[in-house]
Design goal:
Layout (H helix, E strand, L loop, with lengths): L6 E7 L5 H10 L4 E5 L2 E7 L1 E5 H8 L8 H4 E5 L1 E5 L3 E5 L3
Helix pairs in contact: 1-2
Organism: Pseudonocardia sulfidoxydans NBRC 16205
Protein name: Monooxygenase
Family: Belongs to the TmoD/XamoD family.
């Protein structure tokens, strides 16, 4: 029996200040697909999306608090299965 992983997604405002965040998410999730819509970037992946504070900080060139993520997101599909000082994980809780 083959099981397919459900897609999770994050919609992020398409703004200059969010580009380093999107680049960091792409770096940590090589299977990620990004659709460009007017004013919006739709990020999707099968199973889960991981956002690592360390990767975002390297893209931003400054310290980043994971709470700042709330300023960039418009909506999401999935659950925040982990959200702490170092990492945010969006997945479906089965």
């Amino acid at each position: 029996m083959t099981s397919t992983l459900r897609q999770v997604g994050i919609d992020i405002q398409d703004a200059e200040e969010n580009r380093p965040l999107v680049n960091a998410i792409k770096a940590d999730n090589p299977e990620l697909t990004i659709r460009h819509l007017p004013g919006l970037l739709k990020l999707q992946a099968a199973g889960r999306i991981v956002i690592n504070r360390e990767t975002v900080e390297s893209q931003l060139g400054r310290e980043w608090d994971t709470g700042e993520f709330q300023l960039a997101i418009v909506s999401y599909a999935g659950n925040f299965s982990e959200w702490d000082d170092d990492q945010i994980i969006v997945s479906w809780e089965h």
